[in-house]
Amino acid sequence: MKSEIPPLKPQLIGTRVTRTEDAKLLTGRARYIADIALPDTLAVAILRSPYAHARMASIDTTAAAALPGVRLVWTGADTSPRSSGVAAGHPIEGMKGTVQPVLATDVVHYVGEPVAAVVATSRAVAEDACELIEVDYEELPAVVDAEAAIAGGPMANETVEDNVILRGVHTVGNVDSALEAAAVRVEGRFVSNRCTAAPLETRGCLASHEWTTGQLTLWSSTQIPHLVRAMLAMYLGFPEQHLEVIAPEVGGGFGQKAHLFPEELLVCLLTQELGRPVRWIEDRRENILAATHARGQINTVGIGFDGDGHITAMKARSVGDGGAYNCFPWTQLVEPMAGTGQFTSVYKTPALQTEFVAAVTNKCPVGAYRGIGWTAPQIARESLLDVAARRLSLSPFEIRRRNVVQPEEFPYTAATGLTFLEGSYRETVDSLEAAVDYPTFLERQRRGREEGRYLGLGVSVFNELNGMGSRACFETGFPVTGHDTSSVRVDPTGKVVVTTSVVSQGQGHATTLAQVAADALGLPLSDVVLRAGSTAQTWGLGTWGSRGAVIGAGSILRAAHVVRERIRQVAANLLEAAPDDIVFEAGRVHVAGTPAQGMAFAEVVGAIYFAEPTHPPGFDPALEATCAYDPSHSAFSNGGHAVIVEVDPETGVVSFERIIAVEDCGVMINPAIVEGQIRGGIAQAIGEVLLEDIAYDDRGQVLTSTLMEYLLPTATDVPDIEIIHLETPSAHTPGGIKGMGESAMISAPAAIVNAVNDALVPLGVFLDRYPLSPDRIESAVAAARPVAR
Fold first, then answer.
1. Which of 141, 163, 281, 440 is least surrounded, with the fewest CB atoms within 10 Å of its CB?
2. How far is it, in rounded angstroms, from Cα 244 to Cα 240?
3. What is the mean pLDDT of residues 316-339?
4. 135-155 CB burial, b ≥16 within 10 A, e <16
């Protein structure tokens, strides 16, 4: 089914419009949660568990409550009668849901779990009071290894008796026979690191309850204000019509803020209790300990090939270390199930078996993060493709070219069950190969090895499921139904206000979505303003899954179409022309082929508002429309990455020579913003693969709880990035647009891993555990060297 939205005449779409929101961001005039000043606001500090698994025998808050400036001290005994907490699960057969309490009651299940809350006149006083709370803990065995957990170890969470949230198996064809008969068979076990989104602005929320009207307002640094509102109403028993959730400026999210957190319930309960505004701002250590983590997958993979390098079968098992609870709404399945559900990616695979296990451990819960569950399997699969290419004496480009879905094969239904309607997979491979100049690289690599320098080339090709609506969610195993809405209103002066449910965390929506609306009505960008971020506005599921461009543009274009057709009717009446001959362009409305036979857009609008005789019979003069959009097909963008590195085997240091990105996200609304997304994603990929690791010891203690141990990439770690745009408009999305916000984090990590492993081939080293830190590389090289006798 093709898009029902009529094609536009591009005027602003496709141009490098300067971001309109940047002035306030760059001058410090943007207002984040910590900047909102309400009279008499009180501060909240949270006491968090120092144990990964322990029973709380007693808790004494007497001294904390007596500290001057303290207004209230609560424990789980206070919150549990008011709210059972955050229930999270999916209606999938065999799946176990969990409930994360607002504050722990009898047992704590991970280091950082909220145990008590102090409300005081300042954050400093509240933190001092937290230190006075005495908790008697009886430590319990900590479950920290996912594979041991699912093998029958102690229970990490007493409500999940076998430590398994869900298992799933998907099989197409006789996989074992195909692997046995393969001319070349490659296998590996790949262990991905735990990481965190580390947004520049940590989590935070501010709640205010007006008892005279019953209105409860929550300001939250969130990606999903409407979902937060609906779940607050449910979990607090609060009337939804008296509840507003506002997402002001949000300083980065990357998926971490696409959840409902216990702290959001807590501040709502506290403001109702105290009758004063209450604010909680997370510090960086809390963010690392207690905000959602990501990855933590163990992928065991086998791939078979025939003698010509064509894939004959794939077999993959993914164990996800999901932590102590399901997050809401995505649950632990956001890593292992999402990853195996798209394991074949762009490659044709006659026989496939995937298995996933979501394991409960005594760690911080895993949630959504840029690239979700796809990053770790992408590393595993692309690594084995390079191993197979070496065995088959094929280039890393050729083995991929022989296996990607070819242009003439669309629409193509993969063995995973996903259908790809379109894609430029072969062109991506060709573009990467041409940019690298592979023969020249091979000669440079050979000469470098003779000189004791180790250059490596890594390649990764991908597609990205995006524009996530109901169909895409169901196809990937997540039974989430919903739609998003936008409104378009034309005021009497001809200026346009667009309201959308797609909220921004820095992606540039105020520019790109205004470009879409401006083109839909033939107006300059300055005549359009975009509003978002409040549940008092249009309803939707929010921003996640690279859905902003597809969902936002789709709903805006549908609403703009309604308004445009009404304006067209009056313009046709005024200009004595057929409605189909009316053209909207450059702030004017004119007859097609006769620009002089026209008038200003604002004049037509003024006539609709104030000159009833100009209206055709039966005309509806409302110049405001709200429309919903839920894609009828799953959208896939695609692309690839090539990375050239030099590895120093003595120090384990990886130096980047080149990073090349090929991206095809259909019609680019704003190429500059697309490139910003690519560069930002690659920077995160460098951090995840080379630096970042949330490490736990055997007792479940976090060893990397500050930015001194949890290392993030800086500007000096990120080289210049070469970007090649393939722009293949989609025939199935409004405006031909596809999403691309997660693309670099899906694919670039695999390209970096492959480049490092390619560099180390002559040393007999292959790295399959991440991050590729200098000590890990140096140790692997040392272990591979022959021992002198």
1. 440
2. 8
3. 98
4. bebeebebbbbbeebbeebeb
Find out whether 171 and 313 touch, Cβ atoms under 8 Å. no
Single-letter code of the amino acid located at 61? T
Let me know: does 99 contact 157? Beta carbons within 8 Å. no
- Provide the 10 A C-beta neighbour count for residue 369: 27
* pLDDT at residue 632, rounded to an integer: 86
Q: Domains of the chain, with CATH numbers?
A: 22-29+483-629 (3.30.365.10), 33-140+202-250+257-290 (3.90.1170.50), 373-466+632-780 (3.30.365.10)
- With H, G, I as helix, E, B as strand and everything else as coil, classify residue 744: helix
CA 66 vs. chain centroid, Å, equals 44
What rounded mean pLDDT belongs to the chain?
96
Which two tokens mark 534? 């409040």
Q: Return the half-sphere exposure (C-beta side, CA atoms, 13 A cut-off) of residue 244.
A: 15
Closest CA to 199 of 707, 549, 674: 707
Please tell me the predicted confidence (pLDDT) of residue 3: 62
Q: What is the pLDDT of residue 2?
A: 58
User: What are the respective helix, strand and coil percentages of the chain, to the nearest 5?
Assistant: 35, 25, 40
678 by Cβ neighbours in 10 Å (0-12 / 13-18 / 19+) ranks as buried
Contact (Cβ atoms closer than 8 angstroms) between residue 154 and residue 52: no
pLDDT band at 192 (very low <50, low <70, confident <90, very high): very high
Measure the CA–CA gap between 78 and 59, rounded to whole angstroms.
12
pLDDT tens-digit series, residues 127-153 = 999 999 999 999 999 999 999 999 998
pLDDT exceeds cutoff 50 at 389: yes
What global pTM score does this model have? 0.97
Q: Burial letters for 553-591: b for 16+ Cβ neighbours within 10 Å, e otherwise?
A: bbbbbbbbbbbbebbbbbbbbbbebeeebbbbbebbbbb
In terms of Cβ atoms closer than 10 Å to its own Cβ (0-12, 13-18, 19+), residue 786 is exposed
- pLDDT band for 788, please (50, 70, 90 cuts): very low
Q: Residue 551: is its pLDDT beyond 70?
A: yes
SS (H, E, C) 673-733: HHHHHHHHHHHHHHHHHHCCCCCECCCCCECCCCCCCCCCCCHHHCCCEEEEECCCCCCCC
Question: Nearest-5° angle of CA 306, CA 307, CA 311?
Answer: 30
Where helices occur in 57-153 by DSSP H, the ranges are 62-66, 76-79, 123-130, 146-150
Mean pLDDT of 61-73: 98
Q: Which three-class secondary structure state does DSSP give residue 204?
A: strand
Asked whether residue 650 carries a pLDDT value surpassing 50, the answer given is: yes
Alpha-carbon distance of 15 to 21, in angstroms, equals 17
